[in-house]
Specification:
Beta-Lactamase, 7-stranded antiparallel beta sheet, 35 helices, 45% helix, 21% strand
């Protein structure tokens, strides 16, 4: 090939040697652009309807892939039949050029070629036109990519959480670009900033502040120092408006008198900082003024804050205690055993819960002074619920503690209440009705101290009406000396309108001179949670947790209760859900559970209010119908069957076998009636179970076809190949029938493989390939679940094994692989290679045969490959014979 310059010289030399029209032809033929000359074709009304190719050059052939012989003398509608369907009117455009003689130049996308072209069309005489064009697809792609890139960058800039602009700074501020946030953060408009150098006057109203800031900004920008071109927390004040704050930054654009200006609204942060400072000041004031001692630690348990009362009780000034471990400053012991008490801060940091100190905790001050204290410790958490420290609040209760000890020692009558409750305490004068209710008693019911008076009526009016008589009866028994103390469980009304369950315990501690009870003290314990748990356990003991129907235990008790003459006639219906095991093995137990729940709902909706329905076993339900005739029971069975046929789970209609029987005499046992109903049910099940399983299987095949490439056509072609091999090796009819079932169901296990893996066109990842390799085992379990197809389960499991042992899932080799599985593997491979898949093109027959020969003895049984090749050769020979 000549170099480019040499080629041009060559053309010049040739051109000089040619004259006249030959020079024209020479130039056209050697144009680097495509050239075509056409004659326009018009209809009876002189409208252009087609055009004919008269001449083309070599560049046309190279650019379009069309040869001279294929286009010269032909109409464009013959060369490009779809040209009239194009969105661009090619014939009309060129017809206008040919009729008017007016040249045109345009760029247009040509759908037929899927290319863009830069086109010039002109006419040298009426009815004829020439086209010169070049392929501009790559330029167009670059142009479109640039536009998309510009649009993307603009979209990003417009949606940034900061304001951003491109502008000059010195001597004037003129904006080349700004996003919405830029003028929004300055609380102005785009129009207001459009005028040259209006920025300073528009944004900053205060002239003095404006000039100082402007001077500073200009100096900082002139320095070229990036650190100086960053202005934090600039206040902007305008008349009648609250001051707001911005942070701005300028970034110089290299080689241009421009900067990229960014701005952020930091007003909320400034307000938060101010609020935080005020909160800190308020907290400090509060801590200094409250009577309780307060110590706060960090997450390491080191002291971070102390108030004056804490300094006083601990004997440590905060300046010395700060940063020390709590145990060094807050030394506590058990005042009874004198042993060190556990560190409350450490406990809270470990457990994350609020705790209180034991009742006998003493604080040893730095000078040895001992204080009896009461305290609580609570975690300090941030917004992410992460513990950042602990706050310890304690107070000197030495006097109260000493007084309490005296009361404990002298007032033995309180021992029962204090030891037995820890909850609400009450003290009743039986003769006057006067009562004392402790603070905790009132709190337990949701009341404040002052909201409940000192009268027995406060308790009486809150006791549940159904429990009141029992409460007084238990009290009277204790007053008469029939019980050593008073105990009773009853409901009491809380402030929020909800009843709580209460365990009441009490004892008469003082009697009148006449032997009448005078004073009773006791406690009330909240046992609501215990009662709710008991109720839940009772409910669960008689109900099935999945369907919420009664369970077998409850039904057996009801059968005993209702097995009496006055309930006659009693009808019993027993049902069994068909195909549940197949659904569980195929779709998983969650779908099986859904089928059970839907079945339970159908039965409930089909029965009457008074009927008793229970889940009897795994897939069995029993319905007990007191005072119900056999005809009425059969009518209910029909309703259930009809409703089931209209109810689908995973495209599978619910199928249920029903049996009923009636007890119409006292001599007959209800258990016997149930057994007879069960026998009737099993008779129906024998006829219905197979059709139910077939419905499940048809649904599986339909679903598999929808989510993968396992079409009926694929199965038919594969089955045809497999049966021919089977006939050739003289399989008996029973085995040929089995082979037909196997080819239909061989990939049924793919029903549980995710659809995105089954239809993926790219190469599978290792993880995806491991999932695919599970489908023979899934198919095996599905086939084993159905009596009709269990005999091909082993063949399904083995159909991806290879002759050399490199297959899956068990790595079987040679004749360890079942014969039908070996035949299926060849038929499957042949069908896929011949007809292709979306992820794999079909191969020519010669390549298919070559591939099968290559894999004989490794992938496939070599003897069966020979049988197949023989069949294939016979088929080819038969097709070549003259008809």
């Amino acid at each position: 090939m000549l170099p480019k310059f040499g080629y041009i010289c060559y053309l010049k030399e040739r051109f000089c040697m040619i004259s006249g029209r030959d020079k024209y032809r020479f130039l056209v033929e050697n144009l680097p652009d495509a050239f075509a000359y056409h004659q326009i074709v018009t209809d009876s009304e002189n409208r252009p309807v087609d055009y004919i190719f008269l001449k083309i050059n070599s560049a046309f052939e190279e650019m379009t892939g069309l040869s001279r012989d294929s286009v010269i003398g032909k109409k464009v509608t013959e060369v490009h039949p779809d040209i009239k369907e194009s969105s661009f009117d090619w014939i009309g455009t060129y017809g206008k050029v040919a009729s008017t003689g007016k040249s045109t130049h345009f760029e247009q996308y040509f759908e037929v070629a899927d290319r863009w072209y830069d086109i010039t069309a002109y006419s040298d005489e009426p009815g004829y036109f020439a086209v010169v064009f070049r392929d501009s697809t790559e330029n167009k792609k670059v142009e479109m990519a640039l536009r998309e890139n510009e649009a993307f960058i603009k979209s990003v800039m417009d949606n940034l959480p900061i304001g951003i602009a491109v502008n000059s700074v010195d001597p004037t501020v003129k904006f080349e670009y700004m996003n919405d946030n830029f003028y929004n953060f300055y609380q102005t408009t785009r129009e207001a900033l459009t005028d040259t150098d209006s920025f300073w006057e528009v944004v900053y109203e205060d002239a003095e502040f404006r000039e100082k800031l402007k001077q500073r900004v200009l100096e900082d920008c002139a320095s070229g120092d990036p650190e100086r071109m960053h202005w934090e927390d600039v206040p902007i004040t305008r008349k009648g408006k609250e001051t707001f704050y911005i942070t701005a930054k300028n970034i110089p654009v290299p080689g241009k008198p421009l900067v990229i200006s960014t701005v952020s609204d930091v007003t909320e942060r400034k307000r938060a900082e101010k609020a935080l400072r005020e909160n800190e000041e308020n907290l400090a004031t509060t801590l200094h003024s409250i009577g309780d001692a307060v110590i706060a630690t960090d997450e390491e348990g080191l002291i971070a804050r102390m108030n004056p009362m804490a300094e006083k009780l601990c004997g440590w000034p905060f300046s010395e205690a700060r940063g020390k471990p709590l145990a060094d400053v807050f030394r506590i012991i058990d005042s009874k055993t004198r042993k060190p008490a556990s560190n409350p801060v450490k406990t809270v940091l470990e457990n994350g819960e609020v705790i209180g100190l034991a009742n006998h905790t003493a604080l040893i001050s730095r000078d040895g002074t001992e204080y009896q204290i009461a305290d609580s410790a609570a975690p300090i958490k941030n917004y992410d619920e992460i513990i950042t420290g602990v706050v310890l609040v304690f107070s000197d209760v030495s006097e109260d503690y000493a007084l309490r000890r005296k009361i404990e020692e002298s007032e033995l009558r309180w021992q029962f209440a204090l030891e037995g409750s820890g909850d609400g305490v009450w003290d009743l004068n039986v003769q006057t009705g006067q009562a004392f209710f402790s603070r905790q008693w009132k709190k337990m019911l949701g009341y404040e101290e002052h909201e409940i008076g000192n009268d027995i009526e406060e308790w009486d009016k809150r006791v549940h009406p159904e429990d009141k008589r029992k409460c007084y009866a238990f009290l009277e028994k204790h007053f008469r000396g029939e019980t050593p103390d008073y105990q009773n469980e009853h409901r009491i009304l809380c402030k929020n309108g909800i009843y709580k369950w209460i365990l009441a315990r009490g004892k008469v501690i003082e009697w009148t001179g006449g032997g009448e009870p005078l004073r009773v003290i006791g406690t009330h314990t909240d046992i609501t949670e215990r009662k709710q748990t008991e109720e839940k356990i009772r409910y669960m003991s008689f109900h099935d947790s999945l369907t919420d129907l009664y369970n077998r235990r409850y039904m057996e008790e009801e059968m005993k209760r209702l097995d009496v003459e006055r309930q006659l006639p009693i009808s019993v219906i027993i049902s069994d859900l068909n195909g549940l095991k197949l659904v569980n093995d195929t779709y998983g137990h969650s779908v099986g559970d859904e089928m059970l729940k839907h079945t339970a709902e159908v039965i409930k909706n089909s029965c009457r209010q008074e009927d008793i329905i229970a889940r009897w076993g795994g897939d069995e339900f029993v319905i007990l119908l007191p005072q119900t005739t056999k005809m009425e029971a059969l009518s209910i069975c029909k309703r259930i069957n009809y409703a089931c046929s209209k109810t689908y789970v995973e495209d599978i209609p619910i199928s249920i076998a029903l049996g009923s029987e009636i007890k119409d005499s006292a001599e007959k046992n209800l258990t016997e009636t149930l057994k007879e109903a069960e026998d009737n049910m099993y008779k129906h099940k024998l006829t219905e179970s197979r059709s139910a399983k077939s419905a499940v299987l048809n649904s599986l095949l339909k679903t598999l076809g929808a989510k993968s490439h396992e079409t009926e056509e694929h199965t038919r072609r594969m089955q045809d190949v497999a049966l021919k091999i089977g006939e050739k090796v003289e399989l008996p009819d029973s085995e040929l029938h089995r082979l037909g079932i196997l080819t239909t169901l061989h990939d049924i296990g793919k029903i549980n493989i995710p659809e995105n893996i089954l239809i993926k066109k790219e190469a599978l990842t290792q993880e995806e390939w491991e999932i695919i390799k599970k489908h023979p085992e899934i198919g095996y379990r599905i086939a084993r679940s159905t009596e009709e197809f269990s005999h091909v389960a082993e063949d399904i499991l083995a159909h991806h094994e290879r002759w050399d042992g490199s297959g899956y899932p068990r790595g079987l080799k040679g004749k360890e692989i079942t014969l039908l599985a070996r035949i299926t593997a060849i038929a499957d491979a042949y069908e896929v290679m011949t007809n292709g898949r979306p992820y794999r093109k079909a191969l020519p027959q010669s390549e298919v045969i070559t591939e099968l020969k290559r894999c004989a003895g490794t992938h496939f049984d070599p003897d069966l490959i020979e049988v197949f090749l023989c069949l294939h050769e016979e088929s080819v020979n038969n097709s070549d014979r003259p008809g």
